[in-house]
Design a protein that fits this description.
CATH topology of the largest domain: Four Helix Bundle (Hemerythrin (Met), subunit A)
Shape: globular
Strand content: under 5%
Number of domains: 2
């Protein structure tokens, strides 16, 4: 039976949460049954690989385009885990961190254009962003956001993180990371495919 209003939504969420807890409690005592207890992930939530690729027209290499689309599927999955469940504490923060770092890795990959001076593999991410600013592909605001995102991405290297990652990552970080990615994606689309309009977000 389809949910038709907020009251039914709240009741469905309550029932679903209770059942998932019961499943988890049962598996704690019968871990060998884990394969039979997989909860059905909602169909239609994730965009298709083809749909995501169609929003990346500036990527000429098909392998890279496909791999970036897989990474964006992962980003969608992380979003579902954080915002469609009540997971909290450090587990939630680490999911946010992974999403932000993933966006940084995506931006690194989509900003390499070997045929354009200053945008090849031999240049650092920061140098490539400076070059895109020089070419007026991105503006100063986007440049600042992208540097912030790259600095966050480098926190993926745990050995080099100089602080305890407790109470450090927030929804605001995720939103800021998404805005940085979209700014770069849209700017590269305008630059490389000026007649193409990006119609959907991440």
């Amino acid at each position: 039976m389809a949910i038709e209003n907020d009251d039914q939504l709240r009741e469905a969420v309550h029932q679903c949460g209770g059942l998932v807890q019961e499943i988890s409690d049962y598996l704690a005592e019968h871990p060998e049954k884990e394969w039979h207890a997989r909860v059905r992930f909602p169909r239609g939530y994730l965009k298709t690989n083809a749909d995501i690729r169609s929003r990346l027209p500036f990527i000429e290499d098909d392998t890279l385009k496909r791999n970036v689309s897989y990474a964006l599927m992962t980003h969608q999955t992380l979003y579902w885990m954080v915002f469609r469940t009540d997971i909290g504490g450090q587990a939630r923060e680490m999911l946010i961190k992974e999403a932000v770092c993933l966006l940084g890795a995506i931006c690194e990959s989509i900003s390499i254009f070997p045929g354009t001076p200053g945008l090849g593999r031999g240049k650092s991410f920061s140098k490539r962003m400076d070059r895109l600013l020089e070419l007026e592909v991105i503006d100063k605001s986007a440049r600042k956001r992208l540097q912030w995102l790259w600095d966050k991405r480098n926190q993926e290297h745990l050995y080099d993180v100089p602080f305890r990652e407790f109470d450090h990552y927030s929804n605001a970080d995720w939103v800021k990371g998404v805005k940085a990615y979209r700014a770069l994606r849209d700017a590269l689309t305008d630059w490389r495919c000026p007649l193409r309009v990006v119609q959907t977000p991440v």
